[in-house]
Amino acid sequence: MTLIRLSLTDFRNHAGVDLGAGPGLVALHGDNGAGKTNILEAISLLAPGRGLRRAPLAEMVRDGASGGFAVFAEVLAGEGLAPVALGTGIEPAHPGRRLVRINGSPAATTALGDWLAVLWLTPAMDRLFVESAGNRRRFLDRLVLALDPRHAQHGNRYEAALRARGKLLAGQPGADPQWLASLEAQLAEHGTAIDAARLSTLAALSAELAAQPGAPFARPLLTLIDAEGAPRTAPWTVDALRALFAGRRRIDAAAGRATAGPHRDDLSAIHAASGRAAARCSTGEQKAMLLSLILAHSDCVARARGARPVLLLDEVAAHLDPSRRAALYERLAGQGGQAWLTGTEAALFDAMPGPVTRYRIAGGRISAG
């Protein structure tokens, strides 16, 4: 998958940007605060979800603008396919509502996943293994979404049913059992789809990771675990998940939340070479495991969808020694597809094999070089 053109209007610190790129590596360099990450964030909005910062839409509007922003791209979704036009943004009259257009026609946000898969690694993700289970679930669900665009629909409907069940249990101690059963049937339907997709993705990832050489990036061993820390090996069935929710109504009403189910699962990672839990590994080891995971997942998407996803690697090069940096560039160039990388110095990208598209960013302005 390749963005051959990217256009931004009033997005973050960019009043207007129009740039092109081809397959291969795209290097963006400039001082801190110049707007490099903002460009990656704009690209991330061309896939389902809230983008790499998960920021409110209103925060993305450029200071001094009228209250709206637009992100537009022409995308080659695979070999031999005609370019597709993807656009998203907000209008001043509706600052909280995100608009999406595909080839000029209105579309749902989830429909973006049919055309473009985007994976990213940012400095904010360095603490993924020591932060909350919710962050790791969201990370895993983004990986699933790149393989299965329908995953977002199941997630949205599951969350809606979960909120409705919670309100019913909180507001009515003797809540209508038929209405509860209906909501729990929806939870079971979408929850089993979510669970199966997560387990399938982890199985595919584990196979890719096992096939890769251990050097120069550390290999993680991945497991899905439940709220009690027990490994999840077999997927939920609809009947079993429906029974779980039905059996925990009183517990969930007292707790004020649903205390078990796919929304409580967590992603566990262990350093394959040392056997240490990722949370107990050094910062460098955690970064290396994340990078290894993202690269393996790119291979999974290429195998499953017949087109490699767009990679967004924010300030990754600066945290690698020269040998690992060169190894990363060789890997990215050799696997094909398109990868966007940011760094403060142009010299960080000197070792990149071609083809490379280079841009310098300064004060919201972009120039080639």
From TrEMBL:
UniProt KW keywords: ATP-binding, Cytoplasm, DNA damage, DNA repair, DNA replication, DNA-binding, Nucleotide-binding, SOS response
UniProt key word Glycoprotein: no
One Pfam family matching this protein: SMC_N
Protein's UniProt keywords contain ATP-binding: yes
One of the record's GO cellular component terms: cytoplasm
MF term (GO), any: single-stranded DNA binding
Primary localisation category: cytoplasm
Location(s) in or outside the cell: Cytoplasm
HAMAP family: RecF (MF_00365)
Similarity-based family: Belongs to the RecF family.
Identification of the protein by name: DNA replication and repair protein RecF
Taxonomic source organism: Sphingopyxis panaciterrulae
Gene this protein is translated from: recF
